[in-house]
Write a structure and sequence with these properties.
DNA ligase i, domain 1; 6-stranded mixed β-sheet; 19 helices; 21 strands; binds adenosine-5'-triphosphate
Amino acid sequence: MRDLPFESVAKALQALEAISARTQITMTLVNLLRQTPPEVIDKVVYLVQGRLGPEWKEIPELGVGEKYIVKAISIAYGVSEDVVNKSFKATGDLGEVAERFASRAKRGLAGFLGEEKRELSVTRVYEALLKIAYATGEGSRDIKIRTLAGLLTDAKPAEAKYIVRLTEGRLRVGVGDATILDALAIAFGGSVEVRPRVERAYNLRADLGEVAKIVATQGVGGLENVEPQVGIPIRPMLAERGKDAREIMEKVGWRAIAEFKYDGERAQIHKDGDKVTIFSRKLENITHRYPDVAEMARRGIRAERAIVEGEIVAIDPETEDMRPFQELMHRKRKHEIERAAKEVPVKVFLFDALYTDGQDLTVKPLAERRRALEAIVIPLERWEIARYVHVESSEEVDKFFLQAVEEGAEGIMVKAIHDRSVYTAGARGWLWVKYKRDYRSEMIDTVDLVVVGAFYGTGKRGGKLSSLLMAAYDPKEDAFKTVCKMATGFTDEELERMNEMLREKVVSQKPLRVISRMKPDVWVEPYYVAEVLGAELTLSPIHTCGQGAVKEGVGISIRFPRFIRWRDDKRPEDATSEEEIVDMYRRQLKKIEEGEQA
Ligand code: ATP
């Protein structure tokens, strides 16, 4: 099998650390991908993202403790742990420490013994990292230390640095999926114009490594044959927000179905014989949280292999009434699932079918998908098809909306059923329109923002991270741009929990994809998404979101932002986009102007 020297990956990572322009980042990746034999391209893609596979595969996280790494460095380079620790104190970065000792060792020991180092291949590094990640229980400490020391012994200085960073789980580079998609398009399709074709495959089969392998071996043409595969999550289709019934009906073409919009957790349910896997909105494997849903899927789907989608809603065990989304949080604590399953039972409302026994339904219009869904679903006590009606006028939409709210739903989803109403995986569009209660209030909508930094509090909150630097996402640049500093809405309890959460994601330098003028006390790797309610939007010289969109050199910020809740079901890339913030600002401006005229 052909392989790639790990040195090529290390060099690319090194180059990436020094640049920030998106095009340069992309081109560095393109060069790397072009050198990579297709056999190992999946591994290269994972490694540059600091991972060992797609998130949903649930490979245990790398994140080996400092003590182990110090030990491994000491063994690899024949220096005492004291010496390694001293160097660590001086630099504060174990990657650099390893790099330093590796370069001395090269001149010293290896030269002295006349030994050649064995060249490290991508496969060797990847497999060693896997071994480290999977090592648990008795003896795992030794396995981790020895495996790492083994790699370091053969590593060139730059390789040593990145091997340590990967092992620590702190690869700061953090290249986003969007940038990898661009790089794959350029490397194997000749231009970024073919990105939509690469992206389509990725949307249907959310594994960048696999998509890379397909395009590298079969070319862009090979992507056309990509179909959903049971067991690999499909990126969810998303809805636009509608203002009023008329606008909504115009968008969907005046013939549609309107469905209850349930306030629960989205679930993509994959059934393969008796094996059921449930994926969340952000494609995490959440099967362990819902053993009851898995059981219902086993009994309630009349097909050997299928992928269906629905909303899991908490219900009151006494009355069977729907309960708010927050109740599902009880299902998060691993050891309490069984009890939670009893105390907070759930009901599943199914709304789509994406695949059944060899048939890719994502390319079919909704009307056909719904027929397929109805054909395979066997209704059970807490397993049924989402409530819906056919609508052809805005009056019917409004009537159904009121009924839905009355019965405890959040609002409705209006969905186009015409010939072009295919399942647009991973995309937000007007084929689905959400119409929610809160859009009618005067306050601006809540937004979902990403934590990119944090500040220490004073007084009672002294010594604790108590305000957060929040950012919106810009998919064009694959970057996070700041919109506000948020300090209210946290209870003391929440603050404690937040400090714990943040500690895991604090990094020593500004993350590559964050664009900020403000310098927080600590930087936080983009990971956590929070729902935030603001009072209004204003122009801001400090924040970088929407910079230049309204006024040269000036951005947009949210005034009086208030924390509402964590959105664990969203990835940072699912946060409110820069464009949406700019739109909201424009709409607000228009409202004020209209108000003044009236
Ligand atoms: P989005 O998912 O659009 O980014 P969001 O996560 O903030 O936004 P909402 O704005 O509440 O969620 O609307 C979309 C979500 O509504 C879906 O992802 C799904 O979980 C949920 N949902 C509830 N009922 C339905 C339904 N009948 N059809 C589709 N989605 C539904």
